[in-house]
Amino acid sequence: MFTEQVYVRVCHVKSGYKDREDHIIKEFGRRGVPVNWCLDHDIADLSAEDRQSSLRLAEISLARKHIEIWQAFLATGFPFCLVFEDDVFLARNFVPRLADCLAELGPERKAVVYLGNGGNYYTPWVDLIKGKSLYPAKHSRCTDSYLLTRSAAAARCRWFNGRKFLAPIDLEVNSSDHQTGTEILWFERPIVEQGTHNGRFATSISTGRRIPLWYKRLEWGWKKYRRMIFGHTAG
Fold first, then answer.
1. Per the CB 3.0–4.6 Å rule, which of 20, 59, 153, 229 could disulfide with 55?
2. How do residues 182-231 score in pLDDT, each as one tens digit?
3. Those residues with Cβ within 8 angstroms of residue 94's Cβ, 6 or more apart along the chain or in another chain
4. How far apart are the first and last CA of the chain?
5. pLDDT tens profile 145-179
6. Nearest 5°: CA angle at 144, between 10 and 86?
7. pLDDT for 92-120, tens place per residue?
8. Residue 124 has pLDDT above 70, yes or no
């Protein structure tokens, strides 16, 4: 799967965050997922124009890394692009469930599939159908883990070309996908969790009030299991 179908990249930095680097190598290794870093577009690499943005430089840097991955993917012959950020935890059955995702999705659709539960977003339990993994959604579940088809990646590259960032990348892609007619799909139940959301890592972007990690873990767990039953979307 990873040699013929899926182009895999992980957003990371050239130096620093060694704990995240070590974590990804260990986590992906035990799940059988290749580790290929995207290291370009660190804060130090940003252009003068990017530095004039109202967004935090870390947010601009991350957005540039995602776009770089889409562009590099389109230069290959792979039908699918799998993108991670460097704080993810994979489910034990990640690889077989990813295979289920590919089979249900198919390469011909113009679609993005969010594999994780970023934002603790879920499709309600009563709406789940046995044997079905992909469910239409109105927005992303963050950009920590997602799968793109070639047509979806191409549409995003065209949309972002020459544009200034008005919001973080996990919000900008919602505008892109809605305006280009790209299907937004949630994978149920999620097979990835984001460490900065579930309290395993401190955030590398937000400069607001830092919540203790133990509290984030408790809060996340409460929301997670409640929303798996009743569902949750933005707005």
1. 59
2. 999 999 999 999 876 555 666 555 555 566 666 666 666 667 667 767 67
3. 31, 33, 191, 192
4. 36
5. 999 999 999 999 999 999 999 999 999 999 999 99
6. 40
7. 999 999 999 999 999 999 999 999 998 88
8. yes
- The torsion angle over the Cα atoms of residues 86, 91, 92 and 96, rounded to 10 degrees, is -100
Cα torsion angle, 140, 12, 55, 66, sign: negative
Helix ranges, the chain (H): 18-31, 48-51, 57-74, 94-105, 150-160, 169-180, 213-230
Contact 218, 111 (CB under 8 A): no
Of the candidate CATH numbers 3.90.550, 3.40.228, 2.40.30, 2.40.50, the domain formed by 6-230 belongs to: 3.90.550
Helix (H) / strand (E) containing 186? strand 183-187
Q: Are 17 and 204 in contact (CB under 8 A)?
A: yes
Coil/strand/helix, residue 136: strand
pTM of the model as a whole: 0.87
Q: DSSP letter for 163, please.
A: P
